[in-house]
From TrEMBL:
Region (Disordered): 89-114
InterPro entries in UniProt: DUF4190
DUF4190 domain mapped to chain residues: 1-62
Stored Pfam families: DUF4190 (PF13828)
Designated name of the protein: DUF4190 domain-containing protein
Domain of life: Bacteria
Keywords: Membrane, Transmembrane, Transmembrane helix
Residue intervals passing through the bilayer: 6-31, 43-66
Length: 114
């Protein structure tokens, strides 16, 4: 199992990190088995675990970088035509809101004169 963890850890570096998930599982199972039975292979299991975890982290960083780059590209394309939104509809100009939109007379103004 330690050899399998090592092979999956190496393969995970090149195959989108998916084999690394199995490499982590096999690595932990093989370390438990090695501890119980006293077999050889502890260094291979540890290296397999390190490569598997490293593959997962590297591929997640690559995915985050890629999604951020694509998002920035789309944002720059949308903003390349100022004055219109994504669908070509003209933007509404920013107009400050009037705190008192209606001219409502007060009670003193509407009361009859005496």
């Amino acid at each position: 199992m330690a050899i399998g963890a090592l092979i999956l850890g190496i393969a995970g570096l090149f195959l989108c990190g998916l084999p690394s998930l199995l490499g982590v599982i096999l690595g932990h199972v093989s370390l438990g088995q090695i501890k119980r039975t006293g077999e050889d292979g502890r260094p291979m299991a540890i290296i397999g675990l390190l490569l598997s975890y490293g593959g997962i982290v590297l591929w997640l960083l690559l995915l985050l970088t890629w999604s951020f780059t694509i998002g920035e590209f789309v944002d720059s394309v949308v903003d390349s035509n100022p004055g219109e939104d994504y669908y070509g509809v003209p933007d509404v100009p920013d107009v400050p809101l009037d705190p008192e939109p209606f001219d409502v007379p007060t009670a003193e103004e509407t009361a009859p004169a005496l």
